Task: inverse folding
């Protein structure tokens, strides 16, 4: 599961977007630098969800935050494809007393989905995504799913993928406003579905 941060929680309600200012490779790992002026008072060691992946701030320079990404994160997420000037969704980890909107999100990405179609639906847009078969069983109609760090409700699901509706506000304040058919996004399945699957596997005696 892709994650570089400590085991903290997020809500899937992004606080805004940031801009990639650097992506340099060092010995097989990636140092990512993000302009994150939208975040309030980040600190060294904080956990930040970047396009849904929990990362730890390892260096700071003004509003620019640096993160180190391991090979595990690069293999399981889309972050390795980021380039300078790319825009990313950002959310700080929950703190005691923070309101919980969206749904509980760990920042531990399970895989990658692809945008298959985008169709107008009144003032909103209906988005169709394809998903790896090993993750499809975790997606349920009216359940929650996190895409690139954004908490969304599944409107429909079948053997080939699933649909969500994006309202104009979501399109305006996240990277989905610039997404196109064929783009790839990070997926985190609902935590409840993940734990239920693990419990059922234990009952069946499977790993």
Result:
């Amino acid at each position: 599961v892709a994650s570089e941060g400590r085991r903290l929680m997020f809500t899937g309600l992004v606080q805004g977007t940031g801009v990639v200012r650097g992506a340099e490779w060092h010995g097989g790992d990636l140092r990512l630098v993000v302009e994150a002026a939208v975040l309030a008072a980040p600190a060294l060691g904080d956990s930040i969800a970047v396009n849904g992946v929990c990362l730890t701030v390892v260096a700071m320079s003004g509003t620019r935050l640096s993160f180190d990404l391991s090979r595990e994160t690069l293999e399981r997420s889309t972050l390795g494809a980021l380039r300078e000037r790319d825009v990313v969704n950002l959310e700080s980890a929950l703190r005691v007393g923070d309101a919980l909107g969206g749904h509980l999100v760990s920042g531990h990405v399970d895989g990658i989905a692809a945008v298959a179609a985008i169709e107008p639906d009144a003032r909103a847009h209906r988005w169709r995504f394809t998903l790896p078969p090993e993750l499809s069983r975790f997606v349920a109609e009216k359940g929650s799913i996190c895409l690139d760090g954004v908490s969304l409700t599944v409107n429909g699901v079948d053997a080939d993928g699933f649909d969500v509706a994006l309202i104009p506000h979501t399109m305006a304040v996240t990277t989905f406003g610039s997404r196109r058919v064929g783009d790839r996004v990070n997926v985190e399945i609902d935590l409840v579905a993940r734990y239920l699957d693990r419990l059922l596997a234990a009952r069946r005696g499977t790993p």
Remarks:
- The radius of gyration is 17 Å.
- The first strand starts at residue 16 and ends at 26.
- Helices lie at 71-76, 133-136, 168-173, 191-204.
- The chain has a mean pLDDT of 89.
